[in-house]
Amino acid sequence: MKILGIESSCDDTAAAVVEDGRKVLSNIVASQVKEHIVYGGVVPEIASRLHAEAISGVVKEALDKAGCTLADIDAIAVTYAPGLIGALLVGVNFAKGLAFSAHKPLIPVHHLRGHIAANYVCFDRLEPPFLCLVVSGGHSHIVLLEDYTRFKIIGKTRDDAAGECLDKAARSMGLPYPGGLNLDKAAAGGNDSAFSFPHPRVDGAPYDFSFSGLKTSVLNLMHNAAQKGEQLNHKDLGASFLRAVTDCLCENTFKAAKDFNVKKIVLAGGVSANSVLRKKMQEGASLNGYELYFPQLQYCGDNAAMVAAQGYYEYLAGNLASLSLNAYATLPIDEVIGKSSL
Ligand code: KG4
Ligand code: ZN
After folding, report:
1. Ligand 1: nearest atom to the Cα of 111
2. Ligand 1 proximity of 138 Cβ (cutoff 6 Å)
3. According to the model, what pLDDT value does residue 336 have?
4. How many whole angstroms from 270 Cα to the centroid of ligand 1?
5. How far, in Å, CA of 30 to CA of 303, rounded?
6. Could you point out which of 34, 78, 101, 261 has its C-alpha 20 to 30 Å from the C-alpha of 41?
7. Quick check: 340 pLDDT over 80?
């Protein structure tokens, strides 16, 4: 079954064709980074406008690269939540138009479910159940996948997402957007014990995260140094900060894996591209005998292959949408709305 996936939840306009949830026939991503870089972050209005300009060309390219026409496509999967509402609406409306005109089923895909499914296109044999750490710009979750479409939230952030925290720290160090990626590069080879940061824990919720205190502590450190006219070593500062953030992510994930007796751990989302996180998770997994999976770098950030891959499993579960499908800026990963009985 060939599914056309469409993704426009943030600053990437993406389309892909994936067969049976696993085989990527095409994967086109038009990044808007160049347009947002001058503002130091994503400007929602600009993102929506650029999605509207790019989407038909991106979808056409995805079909062409896959050697398909719309007639060869069995269903259209689209990210409908969560994300920037104006950005999501561009993809949702485009997908609805295509589904209507070509008489194809429409599959609503939750963006974080998509991030997790990026692993299915990278690892042919990976199947639930498994534990997943989903870390993106807006979310930090530990999720237990009982099945492809059954999700149990084990832990989540109480305030900032890991990506958001890295982006703000990077910005205050003068690094350009996208901050997390540039912080990863800038901190490479730095001394991660040069600065010490708090290790936030949430009382009574051992799998939850809290990153806002960590973010404030790095901002305060930089402020104090600036007031005293001191120069901080940004390589060491970045490495120490990444150590603190990734320690929290790894500790909670391994604790959850142990407590829930899960042997397979999966990483997903933009922050899963982080070199420190990947290395630390690999070390912990081999030490404790876990199977570890994380996507190839090109599938860590937003893309539509992940949407088409998850779309396949949503389709098999009967999660289809009618043409009244709406977009939602927030939606828990364990919920489905807009489901139709069509
Ligand atoms: O999943 P994603 O592309 O978009 C959202 O759904 O939010 O995640 C974007 C986040 C940003 O915070 C970005 O800075 C972060 O992923 N990111 C990284 C790296 N690459 C992207 N964070 C740390 N290290 C990286 N290499
Ligand atoms: Zn994302």
Report:
1. 6
2. yes
3. 83
4. 3
5. 9
6. 78
7. no
Alpha-carbon dihedral angle through residues 304, 309, 311, 317, given to the nearest 10 degrees: -170
CA of 272 to the centre of ligand 1 (A): 8
Q: Is the pLDDT of residue 341 over 50?
A: no
Measured CA to CA, the distance from residue 329 to residue 168 in angstroms comes to 21
pTM higher than 0.90 for the full model? Answer: yes
For residue 229, the SS3 value is: coil
* Rounded Cα distance, 311 and 16, in Å: 12
- Contact at 8 Å (CB) between 139 and 269? yes
Could you read off the pLDDT of 211-265 as tens digits, one per residue? 999 999 999 999 999 999 999 999 999 999 999 999 999 999 999 999 999 999 9
Residue 223, both tokens:
């402020």
CB crowding 114-123: b at 16 or more within 10 Å, else e? bbbbbbbbbb
pLDDT of residue 260: 98
Sign for the pseudo-dihedral over CA of 5, 181, 246, 85: negative
| CA distance linking residue 115 with residue 55, whole number of Å | 20
Give kind and range of the element (H or E) at residue 63: helix 44-65
| 3 state SS of 292 | strand
Residue nearest to atom 16 of ligand 1 (CA): 270
